[in-house]
Amino acid sequence: MTPTIVARAGSATHTGLRRSLNEDALLAQSPLFLVADGMGGHQAGDVASRTVIEGFEELHGRPGLTIDDVSFTLARVRAAVDAIGGTGASKAGTTLSGVTIAAVDGVGYWLAVNIGDSRTYRLSGGALEQISVDHSVVQELIDSGELPAADAPRDRRRNIITRAIGAGSTGEADYWMIPARVGDRILVCSDGLSSEVDDDEIRALLTMHEDPQSAADRLIERALEHGGRDNVTAIVVDALHVSTRPGGDGATGIDDEDIDSDTRPRAEAMGGAR
Question: If one looks up domain 5-269 in CATH, what number appears?
Answer without folding.
Answer: 3.60.40.10
